[in-house]
Amino acid sequence: MLRFGIGSEKRQGLTTLLQEVVTAAGVYPTIKRVLVWGSFVTEKLEPNDLDYSLVISDEHRAVIVAEPHARFLVPIKARMHYGADSGFLVFSDYPLDYYAERLDFLCHKLSREVGIIEICLRDERSWES
Q: Residue 54: which residues within 8 A CB-CB, separation 6 or more?
């Protein structure tokens, strides 16, 4: 079994990119989570690219992303710089239960299960915790 950041130079490079994405995202309180999916979360020795989505609050639309972070956090720029498939999932300052329900839906799309890694950037807990 491969670990996500080891196994090939390509994986190591994509892991470095993911670390940079998470660091940049952590600067903005309106970015709640980073979801990683696609071939990077499989055992594939040479993943195609780094596919990720940012879970943001509604207020993020008004945030001006600093230029050094734009290549990670603005989907079109991430595609241009790294070939990354990135995007935003917007939940209106979601209740965590609703978020978990939507995430479960994404993991079971098209009648097949897909893997998603969730990186939490904020210390959020559901009301049940």
A: 25, 31, 33, 34, 35, 73, 86, 87, 88, 89
Confirm if 71 and 93 have CB atoms less than 8 A apart. Answer: no
List C-alpha distances in Å: 121 to 27, 28, 74, 81, 96.
9, 9, 17, 23, 14
Cβ contact 35:116 at 8 Å: yes
Look at residues 122, 128, 129 and name the one whose alpha carbon lies nearest to residue 32.
122
Among 18-22, 27-31, 87-91, 105-109, the minimum mean pLDDT is found in: 87-91
Give dist(CA 91, CA 96) in Å, integer. Answer: 10
- For residue 42, give the 3-state DSSP assignment: coil
DSSP collapsed to 3 states, 63-121: CCCCHHHHHHHCHHHHHHHHCCEEEEEECCCCCHHHHHHHHHHHHCHHHCCCCEEEEEC
Position 110 scores a pLDDT of 53
Q: Please classify residue 49 by burial: count the beta carbons closer than 10 Å to its beta carbon, then call 0-12 exposed, 13-18 middle and 19+ buried.
A: middle
